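Handout, page 2. Input:
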Amino acid sequence: MPSYVPNATIRNSWSLTGATVAHEAVDKSADAVSYVSTSTPGVPVEVGLPAVTDPLVSRGHVINVEHATSGGTGTFLMELLEYGRRIYAAQVVSTNTDTATAIPIPHPAVSTIRNYSGLQLRAISNGPPAGFEQRISYMGLDAPAAASFANQRLSLYPCP
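Output:
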């Protein structure tokens, strides 16, 4: 299944560590110490994805996010957007342990995607405990490989 990592920063109100722009801080590049972080509730980080090949199916799409807090437990809202329009959102709980979370996107939500070239991921902090920060080191989207119909035959006659 192809994985799509951010290639553009749309909007960022989080602090950057190990990168100069948000999409490079969360793209799982060779720099393993890059991430975005915040201690302020309600602020977003939004990144754009490269053009995703339309898989022609509406099942098997997954948002992947790697996250932690610097202490205690915090939450954030993780969203899949299409040109700023919300397709799906899920609450994610962070603890002070680095965690990889896979968020399956339900079929009804995926079926509303009209243009796979305009997909974005957005995280909105609900706030870590006072005195701590929330961190995200990776955001990405897995989507099924595009179906190929090149070698399919269509028969206009009933099958025997």
